[in-house]
Amino acid sequence: MEVLVTGAAGFIGWKVCELLLEDGHRVTGVDNLNDAYDVRLKQWRLAQLLPRADFKFHKVDICDLQGLRPLFKDGFDAVINLAARAGVRYSVENPWVYCETNVGGTLNLLELCRERRIPKFVLASTSSLYGKNNPVPFREDANTDGPLSPYAASKKAAEALCYSYHHLHGLDVTVLRYFTVYGPAGRPDMALFRFVKWLSEDQPVVIYGDGGQSRDFTYVEDIARGTVAGLKRLGYEVINLGSDRPVVLREALRMIEERMGKRAEIRWEAAHAADMRATWAEIGKARELLGWEPRTELGEGLTALVEWYGAWAG
After folding, report:
1. Domains in the chain and their CATH numbers?
2. What SS3 state is found at 31?
3. Cα–Cα separations (whole angstroms), residue 230 to 226, 239, 285
4. Of the listed 151, 165, 178, 309, which one is catalytic?
């Protein structure tokens, strides 16, 4: 297959590209390499891909429709849209950039798929859509009308656009709602990455709220496998990808302390209104439709994260 992957230098995008290449597909990667976080991480991930013969890279922003259009002239078999402005808290400070990328950028890609008759579109979405009033574990048919942040709202809008293009133009769409992805070369604004960094640098570990919030931490390789499986033709489906094993944040920190042989000095901060108290994925649909389930236990994944960070920062 010829696959376009946006956000190719991103945390999940890099791994998805690797798996596609290992499976014998040809991959065109797109990323604008913005400075939303440390660009060295994006450059490190991209450096793992550039030597591959079947990988081509273009520095393009998905918000730039005219910049994207030449890439589509020969067509693709599928588009996987992983380019996004991610993160709950910063979206409260700058909601505009989230709407531009997550809504406008998705619309550009959908329109190009329509123009070039590309049959398959995969959208990366988020567990943040489930808000605070749905029972756990979260099912895909739960109410998502109460997003707690502009980030979640922008992803809900992107999902709605995907359904419109499926309905009007017959585009086959799989929407994947990711649950708290972690692992080597991860996003530095995510809790587990920050915990490892702060402990490594002998800095206080900041925890918002009481640390009793729980997250369905899901290893990046598992998420990437599920994303590639999402290329299957399904019509229009929304599918959770999570570990189905939520862990309390304080317990996750304890596990990192064990692996690093250090005790954290914790600095407690007030809980943020945009943060969810708990996430937990019901993944029966992923098992049934994609034949997917997570393989990596949290302990194994944290060991990989700690070892990678030591090599990268060291």
Report:
1. 2-179+220-244+276-295 (3.40.50.720)
2. strand
3. 6, 9, 12
4. 151
Q: Please tell me whether the overall predicted TM-score, pTM, comes out greater than 0.90 for this model.
A: yes
CA distance 91 to 314: 32
The phi-psi region of residue 180 (left if phi > 0; otherwise alpha if psi is between -120 and 50; otherwise beta) is: left
Going by their DSSP bridges, the two strands 2-6 and 26-31 should be labelled as parallel
Q: Looking at the chain, how many residues does it have? A: 314
Q: State the Cα torsion 304-306-308-314 to the nearest 10°.
A: -160
- The answer to whether residue 151 is catalytic is yes
Task: State the DSSP H helix or E strand holding residue 68, giving kind and residue range, or none if neither.
Answer: helix 65-68
- CA-closest candidate to residue 302, choices 187, 193, 189: 193
Q: How confident is the model at residue 4, as a pLDDT?
A: 98
In single-letter form, the type of residue at position 4 comes to: L
Q: Tell me which amino acid residue 303 is.
A: T
Of 181, 217, 199, 185, the closest CA to residue 311 belongs to: 185
Pinpoint the alpha helices (H) of 74-177.
Answer: 88-93, 95-98, 106-116, 150-169
Residue 87 has pLDDT above 90, yes or no: no
Residue 217 CB-density burial (10 A; 0-12 exposed, 13-18 middle, 19+ buried): buried
